[in-house]
Amino acid sequence: MRETADRSIVVTGSRGRLGRALLATSARPIDGWDRPLLDLDDPASATRLVERDAPALVFHAAAMTDVDEAARDPERAFRRNAEATEALAHACREAGAGLLLISTNEVFDGQRRDGQGYREDDVTAPVNAYGRSKLAAEHAALAAYAGAEGLWIVRTAWLFGPPGGDFPDKITAAADRLVPAPLPVVHDEVGSPTYTLDLASAIHALVARTRGGTYHLVNRGHASRFDWARAVLDTRRPGRQLRAITRAEYERPSVPPAWGVLDTSRASAVGVELRPWSVALAEYLAEHPATAGRGATG
Fold first, then answer.
1. Can you give the CATH number for the domain in which 239 is found?
2. What distance lies between CA 121 and its chain's CA centroid?
3. Do 73 and 136 reside in the same domain of the chain?
4. What SS3 state is found at 27?
5. Strand ranges in the chain using DSSP code E only, listed in sequence order
6. Does the pLDDT value for residue 155 go beyond 60?
7. Is 250 a catalytic residue?
8. Going by C-beta distance under 8 Å and a sequence separation of 6 or more, which residues neighbour residue 141?
9. 66-116 confidence digits (pLDDT tens)
């Protein structure tokens, strides 16, 4: 990877939740690529942008992240997540640019039963279209760089953060719609809620301290969807009643992994570690109180 002194750093999906966080937390000048110039349905648009801007490093946060929509249209998910990444990775490699690909815990099957988080070298076996498309993106990026330095794959999970419309807002709106009936929330899907501003800061630190590799970055600890909803509503709607249900009772197009916890010891070994999710969530909720009806979809 060429030196970055006279070349730009770019984040794709710069108007998305993580893209905004990467821009907000960067200590160095950073540019953004987003629609219409970057069109994930036209993988060649990524190649054109790399050729035009000659960046030193690209944070690839743009993706089709709606897992239910991916289940309804797996071909589009593959095009947007895998094919667009393949084009971007080859363009970056040919230009001597680094690439950091944002991936997901959903590349794993979620069947782990020992209570441990998935490590970076554990066997991948996605159980839904979204996970398959993101794993294909990882493989495409690895093939493009063929062992060369300058490629990072960062797997993360359950993002929340500005500008809202996330799980905390959706669960608050759902609770408001169902008053006074208890809100049903899945209790047998477990992961690590992750604050985008914490994740973005960790990504910047990871790039500064390493030359590439696959890393898991999530806020410390884990929770079920029920636990997460309870923590949100204890702050925003104290006393609101919840009802635990199973994944099987919550009908949706996609099947998420039941156990989506990621082990972060590899990142911790290089001094990159996120604080507990509950602490990050409390800070976020204090700074971003929900209003009635906000995030009412989902």
1. 3.90.25.10
2. 19
3. yes
4. coil
5. 9-12, 31-33, 57-60, 98-104, 151-156, 159-160, 183-186, 190-191, 194-195, 213-216, 223-224, 242-245
6. yes
7. no
8. 85, 86, 89, 99, 101, 151, 153
9. 999 999 999 999 999 999 999 999 999 999 999 999 999 999 999 999 999
Residue 71 domain-assigned? yes
Provide the domain limits for residue 37: 9-158+193-216
Backbone angles phi, psi at 191, to 5 degrees: -160, -160
Which of 223, 227, 220, 231 is closest to 275 using CA atoms? Answer: 220
| Same domain as 203, residue 179 | no
Is 230 domain-assigned? yes
Q: Which of 130, 195, 215, 284 is catalytic?
A: 130
Q: Is residue 293 part of a domain?
A: no
> How far does Cα 67 stand from its chain's mean position?
12
Residue 270 has what pLDDT? Answer: 98
175 within domain boundaries: yes
Confidence (pLDDT) at 5: 52
Residues 157 and 117 sit within 8 Å (Cβ to Cβ): no
Kindly state the tokens that stand for 99: 């690439």
Tokens representing 214? 């696959």
Instruction: Count the domains in the chain.
Output: 2
Q: Are 172 and 117 contacting, i.e. CB atoms less than 8 angstroms apart?
A: no
Nearest Cα neighbor of 194 from 63, 123, 284 is: 284
